[in-house]
UniProtKB/TrEMBL annotation:
Record-linked NCBIfam families: Na_transp (NF037979)
Extent of Basic and acidic residues compositional bias: 512-538
Transmembrane portions of the chain: 18-39, 45-64, 102-125, 156-176, 183-203, 230-254, 261-284, 320-344, 356-378, 390-413, 433-452
InterPro entries documented for this protein: Na/ntran_symport (IPR000175), SNS_sf (IPR037272), YocR/YhdH-like (IPR047218)
Species name: Marinobacter suaedae
Protein's UniProt name: Sodium-dependent transporter
Topology relative to the membrane: Multi-pass membrane protein
Keyword tags: Membrane, Transmembrane, Transmembrane helix, Transport
Length: 538
């Protein structure tokens, strides 16, 4: 490999920027709509300890690998892999790992921006008082009117375009003036806003109830499903397999303590998830436990606004909460843009501004597939799934696990130990030895398990949705492999229903008539259910 050098794709000017960029990339919707639910269901504080163990043993080594590869090569994931392939004199097929990671980042960005558009609209809906004193039926009507009304899809597209313009606006300004400055301001502000909202929830809610559900030890609730839930959450919440950490590693300023920063990012990400859970459950307990058993779309866009709508000055509170959500999704989207823009610039030599504009426009256009899958294309299905469902399955079940496996095998088996140590840089001997064997033996097996389970669950859900695919010959077998029933039979164990794999927003469930009367019975309300988000690494 040539001597590492600083490429023209850019670099950060301050050592601490890598930390703030990492926090912005990892703190996502999963911290809000998934982690608190899992912790409350699977043992509280014990689940958090298991989750931290999974982070440190499985996902942190992958983060370290991707980041140090970028720092050593000073390139994005594609050119970095190309250089290491040439150095190791192995098949050029290994470069496929870099290319697949860029595709994964693009697809995830395309539907992450759609979620950001919903949150952006909710900031204004909250300020206008649309949730003040509302019940679940009315909140479900607001969501359905925005997302699934065939007559209003152009308005949804406008919100989507506005959110994507915010992402593009930062990206076109460059790594320093755009990405670095924004992340250094927005990420700390988001954390401060979250602490302020937590203080408000503690003042008006019941912190003791939140502590009981999130932090207290409940060993009787810990099962094998708890370990699996923690493993899946740890893998999908950190933005692995999409080239994000490689490009941030390439941007690092000289003297940045990479490993310490990564460990701090992991701990902050976990702390944010705990604070978010405490905030939501303390308010819910004071309002009658409305969030019990909720997660995903149903938690974030229906139950949470209804709960907050009972508080004093609810308009300001709801707007503040969804402003926080918008900032979280915004920074996640900025992180997802970087490996794509970096690859395009290294491939074509195009200027930063034009590259960001082109990639952003393509991501907005690709996101229309997800957006329209919730309304006018909801009836267009291939083997039981809409376009969004298949995109989600491709990214979460195939691309991201495949990239993680290829990277772990390549750097664990194909490179010499001396080169691996040079890539990793200085560190305790125990850490280097542990990293070596974890990347060789643990990560490939664990990630393969995650990918297979993800695919099985997705395909089983398609069978349950009426798919006639070949895999549906014995849908009950697929369901049993996943370990959960996909029907809503009364008496099913909630712990079985709430495995770590969640499903995307059901287009059928979102397809509520826009003029549905708020007075109709709650049983007739067709809104996203608690187990309908599968991909949760946003």
């Amino acid at each position: 490999m040539p001597t590492p050098y600083q490429t023209s794709i850019g670099s950060f000017t301050r050592k601490s920027t890598f930390f703030w960029a990492g926090v912005g990339a990892t703190v996502g919707l999963a911290n809000l709509w998934q982690f608190p639910y899992l912790a409350s269901l699977h043992g509280g504080g014990l689940f958090i300890l298991i989750y931290l163990g999974c982070l440190l043993l499985v996902t942190l080594p992958i983060m370290v690998t991707e980041s140090t590869v970028g720092r050593y090569a000073r390139h994005g994931i594609v050119l970095a892999m190309d250089g290491f392939v040439r150095s190791a004199k192995v098949s050029r097929a290994w470069v496929l790992a870099g290319r697949l990671s860029v595709i994964a980042a693009f697809l995830v960005l395309s539907f992450t921006a759609v979620f950001g558009a919903i949150a952006l609209a909710y900031v204004f809906f909250g300020a206008l008082g649309r949730f003040s004193g509302a019940d679940e039926i009315e909140a479900g009507w607001v969501l359905s009117h925005l997302v699934s009304d065939p007559e209003e899809y152009r308005l949804f597209m406008a919100w989507h375009a506005l959110f994507m313009m915010l992402v593009i606006w930062v990206s076109v300004q460059g790594v320093v003036r755009g990405v670095e400055r924004t992340l250094r301001v927005v990420v700390p502000f988001t954390l401060l806003l979250m602490l302020g909202l937590f203080a408000l929830s503690a003042w008006h809610g019941r912190v003791d109830s939140a502590v009981s559900q999130i932090l207290a030890m409940h060993p009787e609730d810990v099962t094998f499903e708890s370990v699996r839930a923690a493993l899946f959450q740890a893998f999908f919440t950190l933005g692995l397999g999409m080239g994000v950490w490689t490009i941030f590693g390439a941007y690092t300023a000289v003297g940045t303590s990479l490993k310490r920063s990564l460990l701090a990012v992991v701990l902050i990400d976990t702390l944010v998830a705990i604070v978010a859970g405490m905030m939501m459950f303390s308010v819910a307990a004071d309002g009658g436990g409305l969030l019990d058993g909720e997660r995903g779309f149903g938690l974030l866009f229906i139950s949470l606004p209804v709960t907050l709508g009972q508080l004093p000055a609810s308009q300001f509170v709801i707007s503040g909460v969804f402003l926080m959500v918008v900032l979280i999704v915004w920074t996640t989207s900025l992180a997802l843009m970087e490996p794509i823009v970096g690859w395009f610039r290294e491939w074509t030599g195009a200027p930063r501004g034009w590259s960001a504009l082109l990639i952003g426009a393509l991501a907005w256009f690709a996101g229309l597939g997800t957006l329209l899958s919730f309304n006018i294309w909801a009836g267009e299905r291939l083997a039981g799934g809409t376009l969004f469902r298949w995109v989600e399955l491709l990214t979460g079940g195939l691309l991201i696990p495949t990239v993680a496996i290829l990277i772990s095998v390549f750097f664990g088996w194909k490179l010499t130990r001396s080169l691996s140590r040079r890539i990793l840089g200085e560190g305790p001997g125990l850490f280097l030895a542990t990293w070596y064997w974890v990347m060789r033996l643990v990560v490939p097996v664990v990630v393969l398990f995650i990918g297979v389970q993800y695919m099985v669950s997705s395909l089983a859900y398609l069978c349950d949705s009426g798919s006639e695919g070949l895999w549906c010959g014995q849908p009950s077998v697929l369901t049993e492999i996943e370990g959960q029933r996909l029907d809503d039979t009364p008496g099913d164990n909630d712990a079985v229903q709430s495995g770590p794999i969640l499903r995307p927003p059901s287009e059928d469930e979102l397809d509520t008539p826009a003029r549905k009367s708020p007075q109709e019975p709650a049983s007739d309300r067709r809104a996203p259910k608690q187990d309908e988000i599968l991909y949760h690494s946003v």
